[in-house]
Each structure stands twice: as structure tokens, then as C-alpha cells.
């Protein structure tokens, strides 16, 4: 093994030092040349630092993480954008998160006074390789993939108020995002499932989000104020376009009358199915024919209905002779059968 003399060692170290210094000077020179003659205080251009970026090389360059805003010439940006900053993540697909304070300090170290022209976000995430899907692009993908499912719902349907990641990193440029509804598809806020898949279908990452589903439908409403036990008719019912996302239950379909509301409904309010009951063919206090029927016996007598009843309902009737209350089934208007 060859051993260098002290003199040779000194010369070698000096050369290495000079090379390192030369690289640093060349890197700084790009910044200095672009900023030469720039009055920082009156400059009309800014550098907008991204919240997310991907890099392919081992060192992050300014153009990887920044976008010029304002009258910065293309020539100056080409020089300034090539400024090398810090090392990128070591492994492909690896990420680094940088807080706003740390990011400001790093940019101040590498860019010196130009940092005053930087618009710095709350944080910056950098990934080695892959690509970024921005929130706006993700929302567009969700709308395109979910629209066919919306067609299965009645009414006019649309998605809004997306609550999804601001950006999604894909590990590889060939990977795709698969989107679907998680759970039941119904008006209101729906849960979304977002998966990053490779070409072979392998799922690399899973994300979640929500969106609000508006579903405009024409439903039956009260045309006038309805009192409890008031019968529905074409005169007191109207049909209005409502957003089903804000309905508290299933509206009455409006197809069959002969129904009454069991509690008051204000004018313009939706008539829900659970507030309706059949209009009774026997009202409380009505005189009715009570039929006592067994296998070989059939007796009839006069009674008094003690409650309302529709066909098939069991109600109490009072025998007018014995003054006793018995239970029977409403067979028709004015007739109750006791078996």
C-alpha cells in the first residue's frame, strides 16, 4: 500500500477543498447573478413556494419547489431556478416534511435576501419520484367516476363541498387513483374511498374523504296549513322541488288520497309518510252495526264506536244494551265484526 508524504497529503487536501469551494461559489453565483441589480424592497415579482413537490435528482432545486409570480424574466428565472438547495429524500418514494419556520431558515441560507420575496406556505412536503395529484384534479376525478352511480338515484343529483386531501402523492408516475363511495349512496354527506393502485392492481395507499350529495326531487307539500286529522285532497296538497339531503324522512308519494295527517303540517312543509293514516270509515261516537259471528251463529246489534277505525282496524265498540265495551274488526262503513 502506498503511503503519501505529508506534503502530498497537504496538496491533495488543498485540491479537494478548492473543488468544494468552487462548487459552492458556482451555486451561489447563480443566485447572485439573477438577483444582481434587483432592489428587493421594490421588486414586483415573488416566488410562490409550493406546499408539495416531487424531485427526481438527489438535490432539491429552487424550480422544484417554487413558481415565479409577477414580472420576473424567463432568463432570470432559468438561472435562479437551477439554484441547488438541500438534499432530497434518499429513497425513491421517500418524503420529507418541512415546517414554515424551518423552510424560511433554509431558504434564507441558500437564497440570502431573495427569501424576502418568497411566499412561504405553512409547510412543504417533498417526495423523491412519483407525481402529485392536486386537490382540484382529485375532485374532478371523483365527479367523473361517481356520476354514473348518481344516475341510479331519482331526481337531479350533484356533488359539492368535497373534503379530500389537498394533494396526494403517487409513488410511481404510472400509478392511478381508484375512487368509490364507502357505504350507502344517499343524499347528504357521503364517505369516499380513495386508493392508489399500481398497474398490477396492487393497492399502495388508502385515503378517505367526504362530499355532499344534493338530490333535488319534487315532493308533496301542504298547500295550506293542515290541522291534525285533516284529510288530504287535491285542494290542500301541492308539489314542490326540495333538496332530499335536508328531508328528515320519507315523503308521501302523493299517489293515493283517502289519507289524513295525524299532526299539524304548515303551509309549504313536506308531508311525510309517517304522519299519515288512512281516513277512518268509522269515527269515534258513530252509531255502528255490531255483528257477533261464530261458526253457526250470527247476531247483530247496535253499538257505539269508542274510537276511529279504518277497514281492518281493531276498535272498541260499546254494546248499547249491556253498556259493555268489546273489541271488533272494522269490516266496512258502519260495520264492526266480533268473532
From TrEMBL:
<dbReference type="GO" id="GO:0044780">
    <property type="term" value="P:bacterial-type flagellum assembly"/>
</dbReference>
<keyword id="KW-0812">Transmembrane</keyword>
<dbReference type="InterPro" id="IPR039246">
    <property type="entry name" value="Flagellar_FlgA"/>
</dbReference>
<keyword id="KW-0969">Cilium</keyword>
<feature type="transmembrane region" description="Helical">
    <location>
        <begin position="12"/>
        <end position="31"/>
    </location>
</feature>
<dbReference type="Pfam" id="PF13144">
    <property type="entry name" value="ChapFlgA"/>
</dbReference>
<keyword id="KW-1133">Transmembrane helix</keyword>
<keyword id="KW-0282">Flagellum</keyword>
<keyword id="KW-0966">Cell projection</keyword>
<dbReference type="InterPro" id="IPR017585">
    <property type="entry name" value="SAF_FlgA"/>
</dbReference>
<protein>
    <submittedName>
        <fullName>Flagella basal body P-ring formation protein FlgA</fullName>
    </submittedName>
</protein>
<feature type="domain" description="Flagella basal body P-ring formation protein FlgA SAF">
    <location>
        <begin position="218"/>
        <end position="337"/>
    </location>
</feature>
<keyword id="KW-0472">Membrane</keyword>
Amino acid at each position: 500500500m502506498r503511503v503519501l508524504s505529508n506534503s502530498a497529503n497537504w496538496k491533495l487536501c488543498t485540491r479537494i477543498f478548492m473543488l468544494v469551494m468552487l462548487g459552492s461559489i458556482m451555486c451561489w453565483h447563480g443566485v447572485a447573478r439573477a438577483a444582481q441589480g434587483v432592489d428587493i424592497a421594490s421588486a414586483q415579482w415573488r416566488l410562490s413556494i409550493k406546499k408539495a413537490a416531487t424531485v427526481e435528482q438527489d438535490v432539491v432545486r429552487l424550480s422544484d419547489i417554487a413558481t415565479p409570480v409577477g414580472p420576473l424574466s424567463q432568463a432570470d428565472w432559468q438561472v435562479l431556478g437551477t439554484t441547488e438547495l438541500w438534499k432530497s429524500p434518499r429513497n425513491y418514494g421517500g418524503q420529507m416534511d418541512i415546517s414554515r419556520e424551518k423552510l424560511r431558515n433554509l431558504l434564507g441560507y441558500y437564497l440570502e435576501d431573495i427569501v424576502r420575496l418568497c411566499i412561504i406556505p405553512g409547510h412543504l412536503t417533498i417526495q423523491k419520484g412519483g407525481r402529485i395529484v392536486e386537490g382540484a384534479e382529485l375532485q374532478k376525478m371523483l365527479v367523473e367516476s361517481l356520476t354514473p352511480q348518481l344516475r341510479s338515484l331519482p331526481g337531479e343529483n350533484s356533488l359539492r363541498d368535497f373534503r379530500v386531501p389537498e394533494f396526494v402523492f403517487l409513488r410511481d408516475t404510472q400509478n392511478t387513483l381508484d375512487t368509490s363511495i364507502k357505504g350507502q349512496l344517499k343524499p347528504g354527506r357521503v364517505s369516499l374511498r380513495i386508493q392508489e393502485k399500481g398497474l398490477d392492481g396492487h393497492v399502495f395507499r388508502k385515503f378517505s374523504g367526504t362530499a355532499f350529495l344534493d338530490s333535488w326531487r319534487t315532493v308533496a307539500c301542504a298547500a295550506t296549513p293542515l290541522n291534525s286529522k285533516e284529510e288530504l285532497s287535491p285542494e290542500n296538497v301541492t308539489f314542490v322541488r326540495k333538496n332530499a339531503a335536508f328531508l328528515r324522512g320519507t315523503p308521501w308519494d302523493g299517489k293515493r288520497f283517502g289519507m289524513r295527517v295525524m299532526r299539524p303540517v304548515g303551509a309549504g312543509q313536506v308531508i311525510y309518510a309517517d304522519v299519515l293514516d288512512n281516513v277512518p270509515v268509522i269515527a269515534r261516537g258513530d252509531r255502528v252495526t255490531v255483528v257477533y259471528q261464530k261458526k253457526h251463529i250470527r247476531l247483530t246489534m247496535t253499538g257505539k264506536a269508542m274510537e276511529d277505525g279504518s277497514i281492518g282496524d281493531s276498535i272498541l265498540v260499546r254494546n248499547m244494551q249491556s253498556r259493555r265495551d268489546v273489541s271488533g274488526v272494522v269490516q266496512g262503513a258502519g260495520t264492526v265484526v266480533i268473532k
